[in-house]
Each structure stands twice: as C-alpha cells, then as structure tokens.
Write a sequence for this structure.
C-alpha cells in the first residue's frame, strides 16, 4: 500500500543569488501546499490521476507559479494557458492549449480526457467546451498579477519572448530576470493500486505571440504516462522538448532498452537535450514508486512526498 | 545518388466497393501529380525537406484531399487546418494548428520551422504570423467545396464528428460515408544527401468543435523525422495516434531495439494500435531509402517513386 507524489514548479536559473529568504519561504509554502493536496488524495485511497490534478490545481491557484492565476502575459496582454494530463493505466489523455479565463486548466484537461471524445482542444473552442461542462471560469482580473504585468511591460514593445524559467529571449538578447519568473508546474504520482499519472500546466512565455504552443500540453513531449514505464512532467525551453519528444523518449528508453527510471531520465535530460541546446528538467515516477528529479539547469522548484514518510522540498542544483 | 519519395492521401475504409472508375482515376492523377512534384525536387539535387513540402502542397491544392483547398468544414462551417513538417538532419520542426485562409498550411509549417523561433503556432496567431511572413492567403470561398459542404450539412445539427477517413463518429453512431471523404495527406522523403524529412497536412474531422487538434500537427504523434531512424507521416483516428505517440514510437523501436523500418511500423500500427482500437496507417522512409506503407484499415491512398525508376500508386489493402 505504498504511494508517491512528485511535483515541480519550474526549472531554470534558480540559484541562492536570486532568491531571498522571503521568496524561499513563499516557494517552500507553495510546494508544500501542493504536496499536501495531492498526498491527501493518495492517502484516502484516491487515484494517481486525481492526486496529480489536485496537486497541480493548488499551484495554479498560487500566483507565484506561472500557471492558472499566475500565468504570464502574452504580446497582446492576455493570459493564455496550456495544460495536459495522462492516465498511465489506460493511456487516456487530455490537453488544452491557449485557453483563457479557465481557473484550473489542469481540471479542463482532465474533463477533455474523460468527456470530450477528443484528446487535444485549443483556443476559444476549448473555452466553449469548458463552459458547456460547467468548468470554473474567472474574469481577466482574477489572472492579473502585478509582477507578471511589470515583467510583460518591460518587453511588450519588443519582439522578445521571455521564457518563464530564465532571462533569455528568442532573439538572443538578454532581458533582465527579476524574481518570480519561474514556474511551469507539474505533478506525477504512483497510487496504492500501482497506477501512475502525470500532468503539466503553464502560462507559457511572457510576451509570446502567434498562439505559440510549447511542450506542456503535447502528449509525449511535456507530459506522458504509461504504467509499463513511467509518468513524466517536463519544464524548460519548450521548443527543444517538442523536437526531442522528451517525455516519451524517457519511456521508450525504459521499455525498449530496459533502463531504470533514473538512467533514462539522465540520458534524455543531461545528454541528448544538452547536445541540442535545450535547458530544463523533468520529474518522473514509475509504477513501483521509484522517482526522480532531473534537470540540466541551475535549479528546479521541486518536491516529493511518499507513503514511507519521506518529504523533499528543494530548489537548487543537486 | 539514390532518393525516395513516399506519399499518402489518407487511410480508412477504402475498398473497391466504394470507388468507381472515375474516382480511381481522380486519385491516381492526384497522387501521381504529387509524386511528380516531389520527385522533381529530389532529381534536381533538392532536399528531402523541400520535396516533402512540394509533394504535400500539390495535394493541398487538389480538392479531392482533406487538406488545404479540400479541407472539411468545422461545426461552425469554417475550414480550419493543421500541418507539421520535420527535418531529420537536425530535428528542426514546425507545426500549425487551427489555421484559416492559408493556401498551403505545409508551407506555413515550414516557415514556422525556419523563421519563427518556435515549433508550434495555433489559431489566429498562426495566421497573423503567416501574413507577416508573406505566406499566400486565400479567401474563404477558395476553400469551398460542394461535396465537403454537403457532408457537413448532413451532420452539422448533430453532436457527431466525422472522421475524414471513415463514416464513424465519436458518439458511436454511424454516419453514412459517401465518397470523397478520405484524405489527410502526408509525405516522407530520403534525398541524395542521405537526409530524410516528413510532413503531414489535414483539414481534420468534419463538424469538429472546440478547436480540436488531431495528431497531424503534433511532432512525435502524426509527424516525425530523424536521420538516425526514420521519417514518418500518419493518417487515421488522430486521438489514438496522439495517445500512442505513434511516429516517435516507430523511431524508438528502431533506435533502441534495433528493429528494421518495416518491423517497427508493423508493431506500432498492426499490433499496439489495433489493441488500443485505433484505425489508420502511416508512410515511412529511412536514410538508406528503405520505405514502407503500413495500415490496419481497409485501404490507404498511397504512392512511391524512387531513383531506381520504381513507381507505386495504390489504394486498397495489400
């Protein structure tokens, strides 16, 4: 009757130099609150799928993370969010891209999985589906966050797109990164039935344009789960994760080469992705409750809590 | 100095019973025109990437295929198209979902790959990018097609969504399938430099709602290319192809288990996908010019032409 929950709140240039005590406390509290929500589900005989949704929804409600309420602003000053969830027991999956006004995109992704007959819905159509299904919606003002707004104002008149996890932009010029800018969120879990699930939710890149979709909502890239191998949630420079089909690659290294969870994660994140120039990381769990945090960036907001009484909350490199 | 081009125009319930001589001739001509366009690129020292784009653009311009000009109608009576392309020599990729008024979505996907700094753009934002880059746009009337329109009118007042490749719908009731309804298109190629590429373009499902995205534009699911393994383009019931990460799975079976192109395709399409209940097929090529057509449906519109002078055009089961 063992179970395990692992979460992340984004990977990037997370070092002691950019974090003050107050920020450390905010993230510690935010990650612990998410772990508690998911753990309660698992402890009360709940499923990995429900634990993942609960843990992510808690982070979506916390404005320090770039997801849900804390989503960054697009070029047009909007909050457009992506999310995906996958059930490793039956390979069912649901995902949404570019949705507005949805309080918890991860719950909409779950609804897509369970009740749409589809896997992947986008834009205004996905919001229509949300309203049809009675998903909790919020006005634009709910998503307003001064620090995200200031971050956007700083670069809105440029062509620059700011990653959520570092100061880079896609034109190659550095934009100063001033606190509270990390934060795609995700969770993976193994429940007492031996089933696993994974999910990811994000506001994407500050000042993003053209309806850009990253890896988070793409099954196989940012999110994947299969009882036979692993459940994965990624965070980082999404374009590289899309091209490398990161989450599914970890799964295939386990299934076809017989690698352990940790070995497979290390090859994909610390070797293959580094050679491509892709920065970021992932969290992983298998159906035996083995877990891994793996990143090639300076740090990753992360946490783990399992039925053996072990709890981890950390930010910096290992 | 060998090269190979393989194309498909959709898989599904394609049997002699539903095809008359005139239709057979239309598809033969349509597939041959596409093969000629791509083959000319390869013969004139062009790249696999350019051959794939040229072969697909030709089918997008032909209203018998469900892509570009022949795209089916959504629930709202619009033509919303998806496409993706990937270059196996460097794992560069570009994709668009839910775009309107773009004459050749495959050329927009290529532009995204080369000049957006992103991989995946969607909706009105992707169309904005197209206009910025001078991509050829067409008015709604260009995409009007009487048979597609009639097909939509038949089911528009229902909740049914019709797959492009058979008469099924997602509520489980059969909708009569009356000619000219197949047709997601795709191409894969190996050029004289030993580089491979793959691409896919589609109008999706008739009467689709909620901004539904299928597998076609999703790198790893409907489209993938990697010189080390294979280039793949899929067609079929997209939701299953998304959940099974079909194109990348074929690649991983080759890379991690050492299977041949044909062996890997057969496992994914004729075993794994069948067990999930997913109908459809794919085309594949590797960097040695080996190729495969593989489908678990009654038929697939398909063609191949290579530097050895071999040409294939076929529809029905093998």
């Amino acid at each position: 009757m063992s179970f395990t929950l692992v979460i992340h709140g984004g990977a990037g240039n997370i070092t002691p130099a950019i974090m003050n005590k107050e920020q450390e406390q905010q993230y510690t509290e935010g990650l612990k609150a998410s772990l508690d929500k998911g753990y309660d589900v698992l402890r009360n005989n709940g499923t990995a799928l429900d634990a993942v949704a609960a843990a992510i929804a808690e982070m979506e409600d916390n404005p320090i993370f770039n997801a849900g309420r804390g989503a960054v602003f697009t070029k047009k000053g909007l909050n457009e969010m992506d999310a995906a969830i996958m059930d490793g027991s039956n390979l069912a999956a649901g995902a949404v891209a570019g949705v507005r006004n949805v309080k918890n995109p991860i719950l909409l992704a779950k609804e897509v999985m369970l009740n749409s007959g589809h896997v992947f819905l986008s834009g205004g159509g996905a919001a229509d589906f949300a309203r049809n299904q009675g998903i909790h919606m919020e006005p634009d003002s709910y998503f307003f966050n001064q620090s995200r707004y200031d971050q956007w104002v700083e670069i809105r008149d440029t062509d620059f797109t700011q990653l959520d996890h570092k100061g880079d932009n896609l034109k190659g010029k550095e934009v100063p990164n001033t606190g509270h800018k990390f934060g795609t969120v995700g969770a993976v879990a193994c429940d007492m039935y031996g089933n696993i699930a994974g999910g990811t939710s994000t506001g994407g890149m500050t000042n993003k344009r053209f309806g850009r979709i990253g890896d988070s909502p793409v099954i196989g890239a940012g999110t994947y789960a299969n009882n036979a191998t692993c459940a994965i949630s990624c965070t980082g420079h999404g374009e590289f994760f899309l091209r490398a089909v990161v989450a599914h690659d970890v799964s295939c290294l386990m299934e076809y080469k017989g690698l352990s969870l940790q070995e497979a994660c290390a090859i994909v994140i610390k070797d293959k992705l580094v050679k491509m120039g892709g920065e970021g990381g992932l969290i992983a769990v298998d159906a035996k409750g083995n877990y891994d945090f793996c990143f090639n960036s300076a740090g990753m907001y992360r946490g783990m809590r399992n039925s053996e009484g072990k709890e981890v909350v950390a930010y910096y490199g290992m």
Remarks:
- Chain B touches chain A through 46 residues (CB under 8 Å).
- The helical segments of chain B are 21-43, 48-60, 105-115, 123-132, 146-155, 238-244, 246-257, 261-276.
